[in-house]
Amino acid sequence: xxxxxxxxxxSLPSALLDGVRAAIQVTFGxxxxxxxxxxxxxxxxxxxxxxxxxxxxxxRAFQARHGRLPxxxxxxxxxxxxxxPPAKFDGPHFGFTYSVMHERHVLGWTHIIPFGxxxxxxxxxxxxxxx
Length: 131
Hints:
Number of strands: 4
Distance between the termini: 74 Å
Strand content: 15-25%
Structural class: alpha+beta
Radius of gyration: 26 Å
Number of helices: 2
Shape: elongated
Order of helices and strands: HHEEEE
Strand order of the largest sheet: 1-2-3-4
């Protein structure tokens, strides 16, 4: 007599199986979204740095002509820049920022969402990075 031993198969309830599939999709979907948002974007980073250098040069030209740095970046348009260039990310919260406080002028932008912000201090002629 020949005897074949096959593994015993049990089936999971379909609701449990559907839940496991959904959890996997959410986990990998979230990971994919996080990668898309946080992934290294060399081209965008280089564009932001180049555009920051353009803004700095325009601010220095403004300073040479008017004897002061601009109070806001919009003062550079159209005499020093045809328009304000984009930073790494588009949108109202991720473009270039320019703050003037206590006679200190700082240009910055978001490099890595939600943190990671390079900045340039005009009075000290130096770059920094805030995260």
